[in-house]
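Appendix B. Raw example, untouched.
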Amino acid sequence: MLLGPPGSGKTSVGEELGRLGFRWREWEIAILERWGTRAEFVANKATALPALQRDIRTWIETEGARAVIESTGLSDGPFLDALARDLPCFVARFDVSEAEAELRLASRVRGRHLTDDLAGNRRVRREYETHVRPHRPVDLVIDGDNTTAVAAAALIAAAPGPTPPG
């Protein structure tokens, strides 16, 4: 599991892990393909989020290479708790300065994420810093300001296996 605020590098590292043989899928694109817009996804969140989480869990449990997912840990906190409880799970947290995250958010390709709105991403970051970062257990912390996506993927790939559930 790749955990971090918007602009921390989760998607870039996930792509690198995919190149290293891990199973990687960018779920935000799947959300946008199914719902069209973030607004539609949010408007239907009561049914959309559980359906997405079922799809993700089914995908994780499929035989094959280790699966990699990304999250801010906000609206899907209980889902992440269930994954950690039920399945072997390795959590890498990306710590990135607000200034670096802002640079990345301003320059990333539009339309690949649930929101490209900088103010919205700032709000998500504040919520993440308050409700997720101090409370969610992690196996590895990566300095997102000073570690490239390639180097971060290598650190994760070289780390011991996932934490057993329980």
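End of appendix B.
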